[in-house]
Every structure is written in C-alpha cells, then in structure tokens.
Amino acid sequence: AGTPKETIDYEFGRRDGLHQVFDTEGNWVIREPMVKGKIEGTRIHRDPKSSARMEADHVGGELVEERRYYTNGQMTRRITYERSQAENPEDVVIQGEVLAWWPNGNVRFRGVYRTDRHPMLYIRDGGGYGGETVPGRQGTWLAFHENGEAARKENYVGGLLEGAYQGWNEKGEKVEWGSFRGGARQGRWEYADENGKLDSWAVYDQGRLTGSGRYEDEEN
User: Fold this and answer.
1) How far apart are CA 156 and CA 171, in angstroms?
2) Smaller CB count within 10 Å for the chain: N or C?
3) What string of DSSP letters covers 151-197?
4) d(CA 161, CA 135)
5) Using one digit for the tens of pLDDT, what is the confidence trace for 93-151?
6) Residue whose C-alpha is closest to residue 152's, from 132, 171, 130, 167
C-alpha cells in the first residue's frame, strides 16, 4: 500500500482527530489535533532528522503561543498572540512578552509587544537605527551577546525608539549611549573604544548629524 502522505479523521464532513503529514520516508513532519474542523491544542511541525521544530498552541482554532527550536533542541523563540482589533478581525498579532535565545541557551533578546496591527518581528544585530520603525514594540527591550553580556538597552513607545539608549560590546564595556526621539537619534551621543574609554561624540537633530568630534583631537 505504500507510505501514506497524510492521515486525518472526519466527522460530519469536518476534520476531527489527529491530522498528520508524512515525508517520503514515512516520518511524520506535521501533527495537529483537530476538533470540529479547528486546531485544538499544539500543532507541531518538525524536521525528523534533527530536533528543529515549531510548536504552535491553539485554542478554538486561534493561535495563542508559538515556540521555535534550534537543531540542538534549544528553544530559539517564544511568542504570544492575541486576536487583532484592527481592520481584519481574523488576524492574530504578537501581543505580550517576546523571548529569544542563542543556540547555547543564553537569552538573545526580550521585550513586550502591544499592538493592534499585524507586526513583522524584525531582529537587528547591530548598526544604526535612524528612524527605523518596529510596529508594536513597547517599553524596555534588552538584547544580549551570545556570551551572555548585555548588548543593548532601548525603550519603545508606539513601536518607535524613544528615550535613553545604551550599547555594550561582548566584553561588557559600554561603547555607545544617547537618546532617541520618535525613532531618530536626538541630542548628544557618546562613543567609546573597545575598552570603554571615551573616543568620540556626535550631536543629532531628528536623526540628522549636526556635529561630531574626537576627544583626542580636543586634548591636542
């Protein structure tokens, strides 16, 4: 008869029971419990050859939490969802705490979403932020290097960077700090070298650079 590609039970014309999808070798790659045509419980999508997988918890067919895992089995991200109050009431959006981990188990970043829009989660590993918008981020977000040292501390209001910002290198030395207003750098920013010694400064007006200098030049 061969290996089935998919198995599912029906009741009154609707999916009801465990729905499974298999690869060509007969390993299941998707499992989802169905009740009256809707997912009820945890949907699992996995790679049979490793521990990489995605788990998505559903209540009454609605997605409420998602977890993703690296190939070594370590969780990479956990996200909570709620029904949208936006234009499309069928949307679910990231709402609540978002957590991500490095493969070694150390936290990569953490923060909170508060949004009525369908956001795109965007991870930025470095570089400038001038005017960047990340819909839904609210309050303090913390990012960490893979070795566990703090990488960034930043604050969001309405999805835009607002207020104090601090950045550190992998040795734990503070290397940049300043403020944002409406998603753009504002006022005086300080920059240090890899050992934490003050190196240079810059002044911004709504993200536009209006002045800069190096401390060694001023000393001379």
Assistant:
1) 26
2) N
3) EEEEEEETTEE-EEEEEE-TTS-EEEEEEEETTEEEEEEEEE-TTS-
4) 10
5) 677 888 999 999 999 999 988 764 433 333 333 333 333 344 578 899 999 999 999 99
6) 167
